[in-house]
Amino acid sequence: MTERTLSGIGVTPLSGVGTVVWYRPDADLPEPPAPEDVDAEAELARFEDARAAAEDELEAERERTAERVGEEEAAVFDAHVQFLNDPQITDGVTDAIEGGLPAEHAVQETFSEFVEQFENMGGRMGERADDLRDVRDRLVRVLSDGERVDLSSLPEGSVVVAERLTPSDTAQLDPERVAGFVTVTGGRTSHAAIFARSLALPAIVGVGEELQSVEDGTEVVVDGESGDLVVEPSDERKEAAAAAADVDVRRESVETADGVEIEVAANIGTLADLGPAVDRGADGVGLFRTEFLFLDRESPPDEDEQYEAYVEALESFDGGRVVVRTLDIGGDKPVPYLDLPDEENPFLGERGIRRSLGPDADLFETQVRALLRAAASADGANLSVMLPLVSTVEELRAGRERFESVADDLDAEGVANELPEFGIMVETPAAAFMADRFAPHVDFFSIGTNDLAQYVMAAERGNERVSELGDYRQPAVLRAIDATVSAAEGEDCWVGMCGEMAGDPDLTELLVGLGLDELSMSAVTVPQVKAAVAETDTADARALAERVLQADTKAEVAEILTLEL
């Protein structure tokens, strides 16, 4: 057959060569019996038993996923338990059973209604439809005594192809056996995409219905960077993909071709992420999302538990910097033991530093105490701390004063402590506009491009309907980055980036040209970004940045970057 290419959305900068294995888990239920033949009481009992069995499965699956993939990814199964016990859903199933449907048909019908509602919402809510499908299919399987397809023991070199992959599906994939996966639906922020990055799997999502034409057993190349699925690839194409997959891991720090050192660090959510970050050659941690220490528990971690976590992160890197972000609760990160407000638009509400200086002041003080103690530990000189969602000078000053006040308290108690390097996240237009006023008060800025793009462009980051607007290659976003870097010039203030943009090796030269000192990303992309840094000449990079900053449209930006590549 002749080589052909299908295009989708690449979600990992990795390539794989393998053989297609179609995964089609959906099985149609038989026609239900007549309503008068259904014993509603018995069916309700079956439904309750199935819910209990499904919850046991979810708890076990969550534990396995936390160990294999990471705590952040495992948290999705907590949402599944919530759906399993959601009164609106369970009441709907109960009504359907009492209306004459067997339990499995009642589950199928009720959940499908909610799936459709979520899909119509779009964005992050639309992506929750896959969570509902996952719970629905689990319940139907339990009720039907069905066998679950075991994706963990596929033949080596398999490329999993599916309409979609749920979190439960993706968590089963073994990177030692699976060469990649490709789906008809999905976006960069889907659970499948997130798991792919965590598992370091080549992956393409959102290929569309044309993917259905690719048959079982077909040899393919999965290019998770370009988003191209090459069907029946030539020998040359396979060799190129294999060579691209064989990326050297650089343990040492990296310099540009003309000798400018750029720090390449990893983003982590939990201590389980430290090992992969070290294995992939990260220089340190550029973003430690500490809120994941606070999630999925009945009470917050105490000072000692936090202290030990921060010290463990510092000890994992030999002299590498560890940048800790203080608690960023709110938005899409609910915490059950906190009285979080029910806000119409939580991303524009009480989150990040707004809560730390307000209703979560006690939690914030405990966290600061642990951080100051960690800064005085054997490796503590490499600790940096930054505040999330700072938008005003008042917030910055109040946050810094809180650190100094806690240091005074620890001194009075005779507890060893040090003030760490202090910085803020730049993720709002206000922070970018005010960066010149912030710079004298901080040691560093860390640009969070995921939120910065969302807020600059007024486009929700998880909403596929406005994904073109929310792209970090939009000229307005690039100018906000440039303004931040320019504001730090002449001040004793370095500038890093910890958003998704930092992990795109195709943009490394541009980011060096814009003047970034540090880039932090998912551990999977560290080797590719280090390789890109080593190939970059800073004079050429600055010239590229100047051309890009003159662009009026995202298309012009893309054209300039494509010509450069």
Automatic annotation (TrEMBL):
Its main location: cytoplasm. Signal peptide: none annotated. The active site is at 191 (tele-phosphohistidine intermediate), 498 (proton donor). Its cofactor is Mg(2+). It is an enzyme of class 2 (transferase). Mg(2+) binds at residues 427, 451. Residues 249-537 form the PEP-utilising enzyme C-terminal domain. Residues 154-227 form the PEP-utilising enzyme mobile domain. One of its GO terms (biological process) is phosphoenolpyruvate-dependent sugar phosphotransferase system. It is found in: Cytoplasm. Keywords: Coiled coil, Cytoplasm, Kinase, Magnesium, Metal-binding, Phosphotransferase system, Pyruvate, Sugar transport, Transferase, Transport. Residues 37-75 form a coiled coil. Residues 8-128 form the Phosphotransferase system enzyme I N-terminal domain. Belongs to the PEP-utilizing enzyme family. General (non sugar-specific) component of the phosphoenolpyruvate-dependent sugar phosphotransferase system (sugar PTS). This major carbohydrate active-transport system catalyzes the phosphorylation of incoming sugar substrates concomitantly with their translocation across the cell membrane. Enzyme I transfers the phosphoryl group from phosphoenolpyruvate (PEP) to the phosphoryl carrier protein (HPr). This is Phosphoenolpyruvate-protein phosphotransferase. It comes from Haloferax massiliensis.
